Amino acid sequence: ARVLEIARRLSRGEALGLGDGKEDEEGCQRHREPLEVFCKEDGALLCAICRESRAHRAHTVLPVPAVAREYKEQIQARLQTLRDGRDKLLELREAEMRRSW
C-alpha cells in the first residue's frame, strides 16, 4: 500500500508526506529546495542539500521520474498477477457450479 501511494503521488508530481516532516508541496521544509531525487533506502523524496547530507550520502538515489516509472511498472506487474489469479479462481468457481448442477 505504501509503494502504491508513493507511485500515485509521484505520478501526480506531489511531494510525499511520509511522516518525517521534511517536505511539503513547496519542497523541502528544512532547506526550501525542490525535491529532485528519491532515496530508495528511506523511501523519501530529497532536495539536493538533503541528498548530500550524511544521512543519505551513501544511499541509492534516483531522479523522481525514473522512480515513478519503476514503481508504476512494479505495480502494473503485480496487478496483472492478481488479475490472472482472479481469473483462474473465477474459472474454477464456474466449473464447480456447473459440476454441482
UniProtKB/TrEMBL annotation:
One of its GO terms (molecular function) is zinc ion binding. Gene3D superfamilies: Classic Zinc Finger. Transmembrane segments: none annotated. Residues 23-64 form the B box-type domain. SMART domains: BBOX. InterPro entries: TRIM/RBCC (IPR050143), Znf_B-box (IPR000315). The keyword Zinc-finger applies. Keywords: Metal-binding, Zinc, Zinc-finger. It holds the Pfam family zf-B_box. This is TRI26 protein. It comes from Elachura formosa. The gene is Trim26.
